[in-house]
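Design review, sub-item: ligand-bound model
Attendees: FS, YL, KQ
YL presented the inputs for the 1-O-phosphono-beta-D-fructofuranose complex:
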Amino acid sequence: MAAVQSGVPPSLSAKVTGSFAYLTIRDRLPTILTKVIDTIHRNKNTFLEEHGEEGIEAEKQAIALLSKLRNELQTDKPVIELTDGLEDTDSWNEYLQRQQRLQGDQEPVSWFKSPWLYVECYMYRRIQEAVHLNPPISNFDVFNEGKTQSFYESQKAVMTLCTFLEDTQKNAEKLSPDQLSEHFSKLLQISLWGNKCDLSISAGQDNSQKISPIDALAGLQPYILVNDSGVVWSTLMSSRRAGESGESGVDRVDIVLDNAGFELVTDLVLADFLVSSGLARKIYFHGKSFPWFVSDVTANDFHWTIRQTMAANHKWMSKRGFQWQNYVKEGAWSYHDHPFWTQPHEFCDMAADAPDLYARLQQADLILFKGDLNYRKLTGDRTWEHTVAFSTALRGFGPAPLCSLRTLKANVQVGLQPGQGDKLTSKDPTWMTNGKYAVIQFYRPV
Ligand SMILES: O=P(O)(O)OC[C@@]1(O)O[C@H](CO)[C@@H](O)[C@@H]1O
Ligand SMILES: [Mn+2]
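KQ shared the predicted structure:
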């Protein structure tokens, strides 16, 4: 018998034929796997040059494992245990048991029958396994090409953004609190819309930012379904440091990153603004410890992006790059990864399953969660009514005041006004998944 969790709606799943989850597993994931196989194959000569015959053997073996994975997925085979003995292997295998208990013993956990969040995360972990089991190429990032390409293709937008930041800095001393809050609100929205540029929703197709991100803001405003940016601002203002020494701003803002490419630049620009205008003293960036959901940021992407920005042939862009490198050197900015970010858990499990990470997040004054996957994990990727409060969907998760900056690319959205969801459905039936809409959704733990 399946275990029923009382009061909590079921997980989104591909078992609903025709749903977005179903179409993702049927169409998008096999396309992503095919591209991964193709990428490894195209790099054959590099592997040969770097590792000789062993490199070629590794290429063949990795492709064989990935083809097997694609076949398991497409024929809805049971999900199997990981065998690579990495730091998180046991935890993944335990989670499989947990899913089996929740699902009951009638049917095995499988791609089209089990929670979408779980099986989609599992696919990326299996890609990691296929590469890791072939040592000479175990550090190869199968998504690197797409991530770097999306950075280069957004160059004009990046330059515009860095010039905008330079202008705000020039007049920083003369800014009234209202003007400062106005700049903050713009940069927060730019970081929000940066989330349109992910490569998982487009199955690896170019999805870079081509128009001016600042000019686009006014036209995008009506598409922000929940806008709690005012409360985010007051959180930054109601500082723990205020009163002590007359300083304003908070001690630490954490940004749980999502995608590399243009989105990462928008996050870095926001973080730069927070530090340079004294709104925050430190920024902790949280990223992934292996390639994830095609475009997500790893430590390598983070540092590469800073280096590329420094090397740009554009005065204000390279100036920002050097500033960012200084922040890292001085410790104002730091990059952190933790295996929990590349696990399939809903965030309400974090306190029990990754207590060290939960404790670290509790030290933040504000946590910004970027992107759709983080929203799915915040809300458990469940079929909540749209009017359910965000606090209810978080199910006890709340290490610190937090805000989700997310464009909608999955069928989960809470915290809407009565009737708002129905209105949207009649106007634009795919509003929850087409990436046109967004939320800036805040929660303060009590
Ligand atoms: O977290 P991100 O980068 O905003 O989005 C990742 C994402 O595109 O991947 C899935 C589709 O494969 C969607 O659920 C989700 O929207
Ligand atoms: Mn992503």
